[in-house]
Design goal:
Number of strands: 11
GO molecular function: arylsulfatase activity
Mean pLDDT: 95
Low-confidence stretches: none
Protein name: Sulfatase N-terminal domain-containing protein
Family: Belongs to the sulfatase family.
Distance between the termini: 51 Å
Keywords: Hydrolase
Radius of gyration: 22 Å
Oligomer: single chain
CATH superfamily of the largest domain: Alkaline Phosphatase, subunit A
Helix content: 10-25%
Number of domains: 3
Number of helices: 7
Domain Sulfatase N-terminal: 81-233
Strand order of the largest sheet: 8-9-10-11
CATH architecture of the largest domain: 3-Layer(aba) Sandwich
CATH topology of the largest domain: Alkaline Phosphatase, subunit A
Shape: globular
Largest sheet: 4 strands, antiparallel
Length: 347
C-alpha cells in the first residue's frame, strides 16, 4: 500500500487493519479494551478497540521509528483519550453491582515526551515535568469518576510504574532545579542499580489501608497477581503453576506484615541481561558497572580492571550503592549466588 504522506517507511504496511488482532486483551480474559499496540515509539501508531483497529494506518508518522499510523492519531492526545475512555468505562460499570477491574497503563512519561497544549509550561521544570503533571491529571480524572459514581469507598486504587526515570527526562537538569526523579538511588532506567527499579507504589483502599501509612517490605509488580487473588479470597485456590513468582503483599496493605519479609528474595536484571538478587537489605549484582545506560556502561566497565565483577551492597546503610562489600561478605555473596542459580533452574 502507498502512504498518503508519500513513500512508506518502516514495517507494518502489509497488515490488514480491517481485521481483529490475535492475542489481544480480549483473548486473555479482558471483557473490553482500548489500547495502543505497543509504546508511542513503536509502530503502528493507532488505537485498538476490543482488539480491532479504530482506523486504517495510511500515513507515515514517527517519534524515532517511522511507520504506519492512522491519519488522525497524534501522540499528544493519548492521555486525554485514555482519561475519557477510563471515565466512560467506570460510568458504564457503575450501573451494575458486579465488581470490575480497570487496567490503565499510560503512555506517559515514556518517550515521546509530549504534554498536551494546556499542560505545556505548567511545571516550571521542563516538558518532562509538564508531562508528569498531565499524568497526575489523568489519575485525578479516574478518582473523580469514582467519586461521581459513588464507588470510592468500595474501590482499590493502585498507582505504580514499571521502571525508574529515563535519562530522556534530562535528569541532571531536573536535579539542578531541585527535583530528583529517582530520589537518592543510584542510576536510572535500564540499570542494575536501584534507580532503575525503584518506583512509586501507592494504594488507596478506604477502610483497609491506613491513610499516610508506609511499608518497608520489598515487593514487585509481579506480586499483584497473588495479592489480588488473596483480596478476592481465591489465593488458596490458585494452582501451583500459576504465578509462581508472585507473593501476596496483602498483609503489608493491612498493616499486619511486621518485619518478616513477604517474599524470600527479589530478582531483576538490567537491560543487557545482568542479574541481581535482593534479600532483605542485601543486594548482589553480577556485573561490573551499571549493566545499562549510566556510567560505567557494560563495555567500558569490563575494560576497567579496578571494577569487581561482583557487586554487593547493604541498601539500608548504602542506598547510593557506592560501598561494594563483596570481599568482606563472601559467605552472604555465596548464599545469594546459590539462591539465584536455584531460582533460574526452577529448583
Amino acid at each position: 500500500r502507498k502512504s498518503k504522506t508519500g513513500p512508506t517507511k518502516g514495517d507494518g504496511w502489509q497488515i490488514d487493519y480491517g481485521k481483529k488482532v490475535e492475542g489481544g486483551p480480549l483473548a486473555i480474559g479482558f471483557d473490553e479494551s482500548y489500547i495502543i499496540p505497543a509504546s508511542l515509539d513503536m509502530f503502528p501508531y493507532l488505537y485498538l478497540k476490543n482488539d480491532k483497529p479504530t482506523a486504517w494506518a495510511n500515513t507515515t508518522k514517527a517519534f524515532h521509528r517511522p511507520g504506519p499510523a492512522a491519519e488522525d492519531f497524534e501522540a499528544i492526545n493519548c492521555l486525554t483519550d485514555f482519561a475519557r475512555e477510563s471515565r466512560a468505562y467506570i460510568a458504564a460499570r457503575a450501573k451494575s453491582d458486579t465488581p470490575f477491574f480497570l487496567y490503565l497503563p499510560l503512555t506517559s512519561p515514556h518517550t515521546p515526551i509530549v504534554p498536551s497544549k494546556k499542560w505545556q509550561g505548567k511545571s516550571g521544570l521542563s516538558k518532562y515535568g509538564d508531562f508528569l503533571m498531565e499524568t497526575d491529571w489523568v489519575v485525578g480524572e479516574v478518582l473523580s469518576e469514582l467519586d461521581k459514581q459513588k464507588l470510592t469507598d468500595n474501590t482499590i486504587v493502585i498507582f505504580t510504574a514499571d521502571n525508574g526515570c529515563s535519562p530522556q527526562a534530562k535528569i541532571p537538569d531536573l536535579i539542578k532545579k531541585g527535583h530528583k526523579p529517582n530520589a537518592d538511588w543510584r542510576g536510572h532506567k535500564a540499570d542494575i542499580y536501584e534507580g532503575g527499579h525503584r518506583t512509586p507504589f501507592l494504594v488507596r483502599w478506604p477502610g483497609k489501608v491506613k491513610t499516610g501509612s508506609t511499608s518497608s517490605q520489598t515487593i514487585c509488580t509481579s506480586d499483584l497477581f497473588a495479592t489480588l487473588a488473596d483480596i478476592l479470597g481465591q489465593g488458596e485456590k490458585l494452582p501451583a503453576t500459576a504465578g509462581e513468582d508472585s507473593f501476596s503483599f496483602l498483609p503489608a496493605l493491612l498493616g499486619k506484615a511486621g518485619k518478616r519479609p513477604l517474599r524470600p528474595f527479589t530478582i531483576h536484571h538490567s537491560i543487557n541481561g545482568s542479574f541481581a538478587i535482593r534479600r532483605g537489605p542485601w543486594k548482589l549484582a553480577l556485573c561490573p558497572g551499571s549493566g545499562g545506560w549510566s556510567a560505567p556502561r557494560p563495555a567500558q566497565a569490563l575494560k576497567n580492571k579496578d571494577l569487581s565483577l561482583v557487586q554487593f551492597y547493604n541498601l539500608d546503610d548504602d542506598p547510593a550503592e557506592k560501598n561494594n562489600l563483596a570481599n568482606q561478605k563472601r559467605t552472604l555473596v555465596n548464599e545469594l549466588v546459590a539462591e539465584l542459580v536455584a531460582a533460574i533452574k526452577n529448583e
